[in-house]
């Protein structure tokens, strides 16, 4: 079915008009074609040629070059060149490259299909050459991701029908088709020329001038906020309502309900940091972070859970942060939940949540309904690609609307480069003072012009992955900046329920994404070990995360896609990581995290079996799985005894796992002094007066539950304090 004409062109995909935007040589492309032919599922109806077409291979090469870490891209290209030669192929493939005719050694493209598969399996299992493993894991991920996300001019992919997938399209209410809630205050640099920018900014009642020599536009305001998500959106609303002239900078674009297409690939590319392909430096964790007006609130899965009382008590007592034990914070949670319309009663649950609920009930386990920032009737499995009905209430339809109604200005497509820091002449105890921010407006990776926004108050709210690099690039030195990064590490389990199992209605990609949760607590019931929820996994994300044993094996998994229930096991991590440079995240688990993940994996598999799954498994690289028909309790327990978290692909082990994270926090944590935190209890930098942080990075530790309410309530309290301090 053709996508509705009102969806935004950038969210419809490129169709057959994809232009070449990479620098791979013909030799590299020849090797890439041979690898993709081996990795991808064979003989999908109408799709065999699609997987080897020039647009497909060009897009794979572009994603590798654009999204990959520089060292990974270098090694990938080196390996592809080696595989285009006989001697290189022999060195990497060994005896499997031998031919029975002169010159007796094949290039990789000349090796038989069976031997190619054997080679790739060896690479993926090799515990000694982990860089080679990373290369082929990355190639496998990108090939499958692009294959199942690429669409034609009608927004279709010929492989989708074979796996029972169709785009989750919801009708946008007529009253929203012409509505752009932020129109009054938004300046979209993508639509502006240099000649029109001054006029557009001036129409928003901003003081603007241009420095033609340096191609810089200078703007003066009271408050400048970098980021428009759960932190920045709330802060903008509170400070604009207090009478401040607020400017919000957002590197992402502005989309509304009518713009969304429900297409996985284009939506990830336009609405997520690094197009949704954001690995840690060792490839162990795949990170999801919103990069769009509304930030994570525009693309999250709607789960709205209040900060646990036990955590508030911990932060107040152990970290001495009194705000979290105050009526002020409880009131902030109430205000946040009311403003974003949190509801709990669900009329209908989707397939995956039906399975979770039934499995828990059959085991006598408690399952809790999850509040969502949408109406009870909201039956949408694609809100991670933007809410087409406009029902989900992210900051882009709530707090930012409040802000622009109080004359705030939002500038999209504008990336902060550094804060303007100078010596503090006030000598009030802080050596530095922040005077605003320098940002750049880009077009096709080239700087069009820069903005210099001067403000009395500067707020970094660009998230736990971006705030620390921005502060460090501005010259700040506090040792907590970029440290203590918590990710809520996730491992997944799955269970297959064939269509013949009519107890569960619908398909894996339909219905509310997270509407039920099971809390796994310690035996004494005093400590939360893990929470078990259900994810949004479109076909490209599903295929990229699936373990690869062979092309036929990945085909079998994908043929079961629409009736595979996926569970995510989330732990409140004691381990942590760091992010000092943009795009480079390192992370280590604590032994307790591993124990809790193990307990969560085993519990989730028990739930899937109890719900009646035909087959269950994990995403371990060896394809760990169990056929459930007729198994005894003893056989199940023997299987579960072998289920445990393993290291990532760089680990010196044969069988490994890839972790995921959609919650990042703590990397500029709040503390009672500069040794304990990067900012104080008001969110202000210990080093620079006038510079505040107002996003998930200020949280003292991991939250342990979906953190949207915690981030918004914290931002609300901090913004109120900033308003008082700046009177």
Provide a concise account of the structure shown.
It contains 20 helices and 22 strands. The protein is an alpha/beta fold.
Count every beta strand, where a strand is a DSSP E run of 2 or more residues: 22
Q: Kindly report the average pLDDT value.
A: 93
How widely separated are the two ends? 56 Å
Most strands sheet: 10 strands, mixed
Question: Could you tell me the strand content as a percent range?
Answer: 15-25%
Tell me the overall shape. Answer: globular
Estimate the helix proportion, in percent. 25-40%
Q: What structural category characterises the helix and strand content?
A: alpha/beta
Report low-confidence residues grouped into runs of 5 or more. 46-51
The number of helical runs is 20
Q: Gyration radius, to the nearest Å? A: 25 Å
Task: Describe it.
By secondary structure, the chain is an alpha/beta fold. It has 20 helices and 22 strands. Strands 1, 2, 3, 4, 8, 9, 10, 11, 21 and 22 form a ten-stranded mixed β-sheet that branches. Helix 6 runs antiparallel to helix 16.
Key attributes of the depicted protein:
single chain; 727 residues; alpha/beta; ten-stranded mixed beta sheet; seven-stranded antiparallel beta sheet; 20 helices; 22 strands; globular
Question: How are the SSEs placed, and which strands pair?
Answer:
Layout (H helix, E strand, L loop, with lengths): L25 H14 L14 H14 L2 H14 L2 H8 L19 H13 L4 H20 L36 E3 L5 H10 L3 E5 L4 E11 L3 H12 L4 E5 L13 H8 L6 E2 L5 E3 L8 H4 L9 H9 L9 H13 L11 H13 L4 E2 L29 H7 L3 E4 L1 E10 L8 E12 L2 E15 L6 H7 L16 E7 L19 E6 L6 E6 L5 H7 L5 H9 L4 E7 L5 E6 L2 E5 L2 H21 L3 E4 L6 E3 L5 H9 L17 E3 L26 E2 L1 E3 L14 H18 L2
Parallel strand pairs: 1-8, 3-4, 3-11, 4-8, 6-20, 10-21, 11-22
Antiparallel strand pairs: 2-3, 5-6, 7-13, 9-10, 10-11, 12-15, 12-18, 13-14, 14-15, 16-17, 18-19
């Amino acid at each position: 079915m053709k996508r509705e004409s009102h969806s935004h062109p950038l969210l419809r995909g490129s169709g057959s008009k994809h232009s070449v935007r990479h620098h791979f040589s013909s030799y590299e492309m020849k090797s890439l074609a041979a690898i993709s032919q081996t990795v991808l599922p064979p003989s999908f109806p109408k799709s065999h040629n699609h997987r080897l077409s020039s647009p497909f291979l060009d897009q794979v090469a572009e994603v590798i070059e654009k999204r990959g870490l520089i060292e990974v891209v270098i090694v990938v290209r080196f390996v592809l060149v080696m595989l285009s030669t006989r001697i290189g192929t022999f060195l990497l493939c060994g005896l499997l490259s031998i031919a029975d005719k002169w010159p007796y050694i094949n290039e990789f493209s000349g090796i038989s299909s069976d031997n190619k598969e054997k080679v790739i399996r060896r690479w993926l299992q090799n515990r000694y050459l982990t860089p080679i493993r990373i290369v082929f894991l990355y190639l496998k991920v990108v090939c499958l991701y692009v294959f199942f996300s690429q669409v034609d001019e009608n927004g279709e992919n010929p492989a989708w029908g074979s796996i029972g997938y169709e785009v989750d399209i919801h009708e946008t209410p007529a009253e929203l088709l012409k509505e752009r809630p932020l129109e009054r205050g938004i300046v979209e640099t993508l639509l502006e020329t240099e000649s029109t920018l001054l006029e557009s900014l001036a129409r928003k009642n901003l003081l603007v001038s241009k420095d033609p020599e340096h191609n810089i536009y200078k703007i003066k305001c009271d408050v400048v906020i970098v980021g428009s998500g759960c932190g920045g959106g709330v802060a903008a609303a509170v400070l604009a309502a207090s009478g401040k002239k607020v400017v919000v900078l957002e590197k992402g674009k502005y989309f509304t309900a009518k713009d969304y297409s429900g297409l996985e690939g284009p939506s990830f590319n336009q609405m997520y940091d690094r197009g949704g392909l954001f690995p840690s430096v060792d490839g162990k964790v795949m990170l999801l972070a919103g990069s769009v007006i509304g930030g994570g609130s525009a693309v999250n899965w709607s789960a709205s859970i209040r900060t646990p009382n036990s955590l508030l008590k911990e932060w107040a007592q152990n970290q001495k942060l009194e705000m979290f034990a105050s009526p002020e914070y409880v009131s902030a949670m109430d205000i946040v939940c009311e403003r974003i319309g949190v509801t709990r009663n669900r009329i209908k649950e989707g397939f995956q949540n039906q399975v979770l609920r039934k499995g828990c009930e059959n085991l006598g386990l408690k399952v809790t309904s999850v509040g969502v920032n949408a109406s009870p009737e909201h039956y949408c499995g694609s809100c991670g690609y933007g809410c087409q009905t406009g029902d989900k209430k992210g900051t882009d339809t709530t707090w930012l609307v409040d802000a622009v109604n109080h004359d705030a200005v939002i500038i999209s497509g504008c990336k902060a480069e550094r804060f303007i820091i100078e010596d503090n002449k006030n000598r009030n105890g802080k050596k530095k003072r922040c005077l605003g921010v320098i940002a750049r407006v880009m077009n096709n990776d080239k700087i069009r012009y820069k903005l210099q926004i001067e403000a009395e108050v500067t707020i970094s709210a660009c998230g736990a992955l971006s705030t620390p690099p921005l502060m460090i690039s501005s010259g700040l030195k506090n040792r907590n900046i970029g440290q203590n990064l918590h990710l809520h590490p996730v491992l997944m389990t799955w269970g297959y329920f064939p269509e013949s199992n009519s107890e569960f209605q619908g398909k894996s990609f339909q219905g509310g994404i997270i509407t039920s949760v099971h809390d796994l607590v310690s035996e004494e019931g005093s400590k939360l070990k893990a929470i078990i929820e259900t994810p949004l996994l479109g076909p490209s994300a599903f295929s990229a995360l699936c373990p690869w044993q062979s092309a036929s094996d990945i085909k079998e998994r994908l043929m079961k896609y629409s009736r595979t229930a996926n569970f995510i096991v989330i732990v409140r991590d004691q381990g942590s990581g760091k992010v000092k440079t943009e795009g480079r995240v390192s992370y280590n688990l604590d032994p307790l995290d591993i124990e809790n993940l193990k307990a969560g994996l085993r519990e989730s598999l028990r739930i899937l079996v109890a719900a009646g799954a035909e087959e269950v498994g994990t995403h371990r690289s060896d394809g760990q799985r169990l056929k459930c028909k007729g198994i005894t309790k003893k056989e199940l327990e023997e299987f579960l005894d072998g289920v445990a978290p393993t290291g990532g692909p760089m680990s010196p082990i044969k069988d490994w796992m890839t972790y995921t994270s959609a919650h990042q926090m703590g990397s500029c944590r709040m503390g009672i002094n500069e040794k304990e935190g990067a900012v104080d209890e008001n969110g202000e930098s210990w080093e620079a007066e006038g510079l505040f942080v107002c996003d998930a990075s200020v949280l003292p530790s991991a939250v342990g539950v979906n953190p949207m309410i915690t981030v918004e309530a914290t931002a609300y309290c901090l913004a109120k304090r900033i308003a008082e301090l700046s009177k």
